[in-house]
Amino acid sequence: MYKHDVELITQVFTQYCLEDPSFEPKELISRTADLFQIPFFRQVPAITMAAVQQDGKALQLASERLKNDQPTVLAAIQQDRFSLKHASKRLKDDQATVLAAIQHDWLNLLNASDRLKNDPTMVLAAAKQRGYALKSASNGLEDDPATLLAAVQHDEETLQFASVFQGDSEFILAVVQQDGTALQFASDGLKDDQTTVLAAVTQNGLALQFASPELKGNREIVLAAVTQNGYALQSASPELKGNREIVLAAVTQNGKALQLASDGLKDDLATVLAAVTQNGKALEFASPRLQQDPEILKAARQDGQE
Asked: Where do the DSSP E strands lie in the chain?
């Protein structure tokens, strides 16, 4: 930009823009990138708004007055999710501004004022994206049942940051009823609690992998797990992988779970027939003898034709 251009544009903005912030001459706005390199124009609302809409990071070069302007800061955040760190102290302590930033990325909780870092609404908004946000709070919100339960609904990993509740049977029961895999963050005692584990595997059969060794050999628990997800058979005890009722329930839910059954049941006509009826591709997991059985082959072909 030539010197006379700078002088001319400066004269125009001095006369109009600073007196009327709504002044937006298109021919000048189109040169935002050039204008914003000149400190004078960083105090002009129209130029600054255009700059942050193009690149949110431009907020760091704006005047202190415009770093304190909510529409400008929100526009910057919309373009660059971490622009909150360049906002004024007032806006970092403004609930609406910080919440908008957190909704773009939970890490913006770290850029908020100390007051809002510990505000339940802010922390919960962040924790809904990433449970680790609770770790960022310093006022014990990770030990607040209502906040924690709400956060766990969105991210079960939140529970790992709340050791106080990992052994709370009532709380954990409520959590695993929403997401069975949250059982992995429960205390060892609750991983060995039949009521808790049954609730977990009923919601998600694959939660069986987090149960205690004893409950992986519990018929009622394992039957509930494989009924919900046949592949849960993988976590069952060796004895139950050879239990006809258990394996039949697993392959009825998912025929390919036959691969997880004992060799004896891979050679059992009723079990293999149920598996290939559910999924013809399960034939590959049957014993060599049953892979040649006419009834089994017919059922497998029929499934493949559907």
From this structure: none
Alpha carbon distances (Å) from 91 to 58, 118, 137: 17, 16, 19
pLDDT digits (tens, 9 = 90+) for 229-261: 999 999 999 999 999 999 999 999 999 999 999
pTM of this structure: 0.57
What is the CA angle 291-295-298, rounded to 5? 85
Tell which phi-psi region holds residue 164, choosing left (phi > 0), alpha (psi between -120 and 50) or beta: alpha
Q: In this predicted model, what pLDDT tens digit does every residue of 33-67 receive, in sequence order?
A: 666 777 777 888 888 888 899 889 989 989 999 99
CA–CA dist 103, 189 (Å, integer): 37
Question: What is the distance between the alpha carbons of residues 28 and 30, in angstroms, rounded to a whole number?
Answer: 5
Token digits for 186?
């429960």
Return d(Cα 278, Cα 275) in angstroms, integer.
Answer: 5
Q: How far apart are CA 198 and CA 193, in angstroms?
A: 8
Could you tell me how far CA 149 lies from the centroid of its own chain?
A: 15
